[in-house]
Write a structure and sequence with these properties.
It contains ten helices and two strands; from the N terminus they run ααααααααββαα. It has helices at residues 2-13, 18-36, 38-45, 49-54, 60-63, 71-92, 94-115, 130-143, 159-175, 184-199; strands spanning 148-151, 155-158. The chain has a two-stranded antiparallel ribbon. α7 packs across α10 (184-199) and α9 packs across α10 (184-199). The protein is globular.
Length: 217
């Protein structure tokens, strides 16, 4: 079994940068744990105002992002993380990309947790790495605005327009009275903190991160 996982890791290393690879693994493990014991995992690792802020379970500011409720949700997020995150990590280096991931992951959910008590949704648990994905998409569009992405693998659109549309849709959905079960405020928070990091990353250099192995790409 150990050799099996080693072979998988060697294969993943060929396609993913170090931090992206760790995030992929964390999300896969979180998804499997959630499938086995959904309620305990949700209560322990999902983020909500009641548990994360009021009860002081601050680890949920990170662990919420590793839990996904469906395979489709997991697949879309990990595909976007791999497609856009690897290029950013190659541009910045693993240390800076790790710092970015921490800032955006925590900032995205804090945006949601701070606002939702005022609209009566404070105890709705938040899961998924979508907030970080939105931050990555913003950063990618900032550096590579004219790159083409294919929406639904069919419709070509420049990344700057794609991210602008995503941001507008997230904003409209967040102010809509209709409840969709999607944490749109977390998406907006990801865009916001992605913007703040890209515009002036020096504000976040106080966050200590370990030195990571960096492959040459």
């Amino acid at each position: 079994m150990r050799n099996f996982f080693r072979e998988i890791d060697l294969w993943v290393r060929q396609w993913a940068t170090p931090v992206v690879r760790l995030l992929l693994y964390a999300c896969v493990v979180g998804f499997l744990l959630f499938a086995i014991a959904p309620l305990p995992v949700l209560r322990l690792f999902g983020a909500s105002f009641d548990s994360t802020i009021f009860r002081g379970m601050i680890w949920q500011l990170l662990t919420y992002s590793w839990i996904h409720g469906s395979f489709g949700h997991l697949l879309f997020n990990l595909l976007a993380l791999w497609m856009f995150g690897c290029r950013l990590e190659m541009r910045w280096g693993s240390r800076t990309f790790l710092r970015f991931s921490l800032v955006v992951t925590i900032g995205a959910v804090l945006t949601h947790l701070v606002i939702t008590p005022f609209v009566g949704q404070s105890n709705v648990p938040i899961i998924g790495i979508s907030g970080l994905v939105y931050g990555i998409l913003f950063a990618y569009a900032y550096y590579y605005p004219d790159d083409i992405v294919y929406v639904q693998f069919l419709i070509p659109i420049k990344t700057k327009y794609f991210v602008a549309i995503l941001g507008l849709l997230a904003f409209l959905a967040s102010v809509s009275p209709m409840q969709t079960g999607i944490a749109h405020l977390t998406h907006l928070g990801g865009l916001l903190f992605g913007y703040l990091f890209v515009r002036d990353p020096r504000w976040f250099q106080w966050i200590p991160v370990p030195d990571l192995e960096r492959r040459h790409w």
